Amino acid sequence: MWVTDAALTPATDADLEVMREQLGRPMRGVVGIAARCACGNPTVVATEPRLPDGTPFPTFYYLTHPGATAAMSALEATHVMRELADLLADDDEIASRYRAAHEAYLADRSVYGDVEEIAGISAGGMPTRVKCLHAVAAHALAAGPGVNPIGDLALERSSWSPARCTCANPRVAA
Ligand SMILES: [Zn+2]
């Protein structure tokens, strides 16, 4: 089972600093941390649907953890991407749950404002395609198992696990 919180936790100054190291740039428009590594470092950040400079930003759940992003990039380079796309095309139940995941994603984001330019647009190819495993895995980590079937499968197939810290700079337990 994935260890995740459905609710956001506040992004502390330490979280913002860790994300700056993870991404190599400051993360803008942060509204909270949606999932964390076993050590407590941010794994998924939630961002405003409109960034402070006015840019619409559909990816409400953004994967920041280097171990997780590398694992998803590695999966995207394999046949797994095609397998998941085929599964979505062939399995009505998965397709239905993926559409529901898309709706849940939009509902989560709308709490932070409705942005006309990205209305009805979620992330990762939802609701009918598999385009970015980082985005669907981020949603699965944020929402917990059973919400985003493609994200759940991507995490199952991946070499990375939220239960095992691989951070270069693990957080010292508070
Ligand atoms: Zn860690």
Rounded to the nearest angstrom, the radius of gyration is: 15 Å
What structural class do helix, strand and pairing data support? mainly alpha
Bound small molecules, deduplicated:
zinc ion
Give the ordered list of helices and strands: HEEEHHHHH
The average pLDDT is 93
- Please report the number of helical segments: 6
Distance between the termini: 24 Å
The residue ranges in which pLDDT falls below 50 over 5 or more consecutive positions are 1-5
Major sheet size, sense and barrel closure: 3 strands, antiparallel
Strands ordered across the widest β-sheet: 1-2-3
The count of β-strands is 3
Strand content: 5-15%
- Helical percent range? 40-55%
Total of domains: 1
Q: What general outline do the C-alpha atoms trace?
A: globular
